[in-house]
Design brief:
- Helices cover 72% and strands 0% of the residues.
- The protein has helices at residues 3-30, 38-66, 70-77, 81-101, 105-123.
- α1 packs antiparallel against α2 (38-66), α1 (3-30) packs across α5 and α2 (38-66) packs across α4.
Amino acid sequence: MDPSRQAAEARLLAAGHAREVADFARGIVGDSSSGVDAADRIRAARRLRLLSLQVLNWTVRAEVLHGTPWPDLAVALGRGEDALREEFEASTLQWARDHDADPASTEQSLAAAAALDAWYERHADDLLDPDTQAPVSSLFPPPNV
């Protein structure tokens, strides 16, 4: 698989985690006036933070695979380049190799992208969100016929 496809696959995962963050955050808003105790509210907030970190981590992996220079990534994250490389380089490349080896990955990715597009369409705000058709599926070029 080519690096641009690998970057698209990682962006797909980031988008999936972003959907999970949005849906989970909606639940926290819904519990605002409920009888949930302090410990449960704090656990929910901690879980939201961890879910958000998954969005960040997969976004970084996608940029690594896209070829964004390490110094640019370090500046964007406010971290040292060496520490960033240590955290992301080997694991990102290993994920890409493993993902490439899965014969079902393309079909699964296209289905996941279509599901995220449908979710986006249901939740899009006409005034705030760009008028984008299939924003996630657009990561993947149509197959050659």
